[in-house]
Please model this.
Amino acid sequence: MGPAEYTIFWDLLETWNFWSIIVGVFTFALLIFLVIRFRQISPTEESPDKIVPGVFPKERDNLTLELTWFIVPTILVLYLTFVAWQSMISVWVDPYSEENDIDDFEITMEAYQWGWNFYYHDDIEIYDPETGNYTYFVTPEGTEIKNETVSYDLYLPCNKLIKAKIRTIGDATTAPVLHAPFLPEWAIKEDAVPGLETYIAFTPRETGTFDLFCAEYCGQQHSKMMAKVYVVGVC
Model:
């Protein structure tokens, strides 16, 4: 399970996997070489490198090698940090700022022990090419997804910026607890914090059925706190 290929997190995953393989192969190759090269010898044999216990071999100091194994990993770490930061700032934005006031679809995710409510603040309209008209999207249960509709699975239009406010609630006997909606398809996760409204923003670009989990332990039935995400319409 990983992010969709059209997301920036897919590029991040591929970059990290590539450099992980390169570093891993180099590290284990060097390790195997050193294990063989400096394997234990008989006490009567002379060390192949003329090393005397307790004496630092200053004549074998190599400043170039020392600088190389410091500078090269530092550059690689800084590069990977930059790549990761670019993906982070793409989602760590205020979707309700003026600069992000574009064609969007607003919802509210409400978490509770142990389930989800989804409130819609816009309509999902589906174009009918036969009539040339738009109609509300109707769920398999016969519910039209439009402003002020509530559902227990999430329905989203394709190719629209989804702006989701996140909150957590309790009931008459329990106080609100921490939750975290996690959408693996878009590599998006955000905490639902009692007394605080958080938000996420992402754009689905493929229709289909996807999963939503709670990624923060929230009690006895945490593992059952799941929902389906249906991306509908024309992409």
